[in-house]
Please model this.
Amino acid sequence: MANTVYILLNNNNLDPILWKEWDNITFKTLKESLMNPPALDLCGSTTELVCMTGSKLILAGHGWTPLQSIPNCMRSDWISRENALLSTSKETLLQLTPACGTRENNFTLEHCIPHKGQLPLILSSPSEEGDNDLNSQVKSSWVIMAEGGFDPCECVCSHEHAMRRLINLLRQSQSYCTDTECLQELPGPSSDNGISITMILMAWMVIAVILFLLRPPNLRGSNLTGKPASPHNSKSVIKLTFVHQHLVKQELHGTVMFEIKKICCIGAGYVGGPTCSVIAHMCPEIRVTVVDINESRINAWNSPTLPIYEPGLKEVVESCRGKNLFFSTNIDDAIKEADLVFISVNTPTKTYGMGKGRAADLKYIEACARRIVQNSHGYKIVTEKSTVPVRAAESIRRIFDANTKPNLNLQVLSNPEFLAEGTAIKDLKNPDRVLIGGDETPEGQRAVQALCAVYEHWVPREKILTTNTWSSELSKLTANAFLAQRISSINSISALCEATGADVEEVATAIGMDQRIGNKFLKASVGFGGSCFQKDVLNLVYLCEALNLPEVARYWQQVIDMNDYQRRRFASRIIDSLFNTVTDKKIAILGFAFKKDTGDTRESSSIYISKYLMDEGAHLHIYDPKVPREQIVVDLSHPGVSKDDQVARLVTISKDPYEACDGAHAVVICTEWDMFKELDYERIHKKMLKPAFIFDGRRVLDGLHNELQTIGFQIETIGKKVSSKRIPYAPSGEIPKFSLQDMPNKKPRV
Model:
């Protein structure tokens, strides 16, 4: 098990602080505690200290918290376990390693055998005033070795100046001790210092004991039950006098933080563009380049009119574009210069072949991997941002391994994005969590921590979760599946409410107040859309089937089936209410994006509702404040959506909602844009044919029903019976199932 370097600095600037995480143990940063050590809460559950396993610990700085500042609860427990460690005299310290000899015989570990209660400690006394020479600092250090897995070839510097020099040397993989005999002599503490050496040593000992006690028992070198750690660890036979330059390189290479200075993101879409814009905004010292093969899209990112709409995105882009944020079609050069490459390309559902309609098509991921390895040299981190099936990183790594070249080291991470369109900038600036998955190897963990350091510019450390790669990939699919499941669950109840006279909003409020359930994603609607939910659930279904888990596959397939049912049920309700026919009738469709505050139409319920109504011969007049006319035409012109010249004959794109509603038989609200609440419905009613219907597929008009009925509207809404003047009708047949995922030859998006 490889060693990890932990460096803690006790000064107000805390620059630099290098953290490493071991074995997926989550811990909170001690930054605030180091700024004010007496405030460290060692007894409460709110502070999780670093758990170290076979690791090197470097403590630097001076003026550490006196032992009296350690809470009594921890002190008493510590004393009861390790009362022999309370003394800080030289003789007692040497008693910790009785088999290791004394300073007079060079304190070697040739025959060191771990004993019960021993701890991995490196303790330093302050050097003489004005002594800032690094080698002198090393020579003035006390080194106490207690665990076989602890590397003795490490030192403690008692001044920030020396510590910074040490870190710089480590980063350059140079020796911090050019004299091979510099640790041969270990002089005792000097008594000439103004700082109480006893207090410093006692405080450091307490901190080290606490870190040891907080380890999981199965990870400790000694489990405090008397069972010693293995004395055969290869580290335990290294002499303190053996500190050659090549040894330092060998032991510390890969454990020092890799600093990311340049980022390349392949894919300038709904994830790559906003994500990298926020990173550039929050990390002004990092150069971020977003690349794409779509020249018109890149031109739009470089123009005043961005290719996508997100509240707050334009301000973020304009604040750093041309400074440390760039958009380009020069993919190869951006990859060559980058320390970190994000892969943020589309992973659509396959439309043909094996897994058609369910499996993810990874052709764009594969193309990115091949281009990255072709244009890379040295050390580089490659990170999945796209939502991918489990073990997609393994496919990327196989491509890298098959095309490797000398001095090339590509590390693959998974860093899925959990932003929601419409609130993307808010979600990126204040995320619920940041998830990073990587290999459980020293190199893999080095890459993980390098990416953690980028997010730590603005994300609290406790919100950054690290896992293995596969857990990260599956977590993204599972998160979207759970959210889709909640929507389908409340939509199923909406059908029951319409049949019984209950109100689904009241039911949702009642169950949402139960803390075990919560009130999020309990909004009944015409169905969920977007690029992720349906695609990811279908991907999960396919994965379960491939792994011979048919019951699990059927469970998640029902989430999609319920969503399809909700859309067909809503379209049937429109047709039934309009006297069982909509042929040649004008229907106003308000909203075409899959949700408000975005221009994204992928898997939008409006596409499905429009398709069903066009099949019945309805004339559609469509208005959306953020979706361009060209995109609506492209979406409705897919081979499976419309036939022949249906779009040209039956679809009109309106410039405002009043124009769309002029002369209409019914108004259908498919997107919950806030502006639809503020329309002059009396004006709209006057221009419509009577009886005038409103079908509220998003319940944006809740609270206005009485007013609208007074005007003369017939109201139909999801999950509630509203109209008391319902016109009798003969039920029509069930609308046949339809899915955009099954369509071949899908036309490209605008």
Q: What stands out?
A: Confidence is low (pLDDT under 50) at residues 1-196, 217-255, 724-732. The first strand starts at residue 5 and ends at 10. Residues 84 and 92 are 8 Å apart (CA to CA). The chain is about 35% helix and 10% strand.
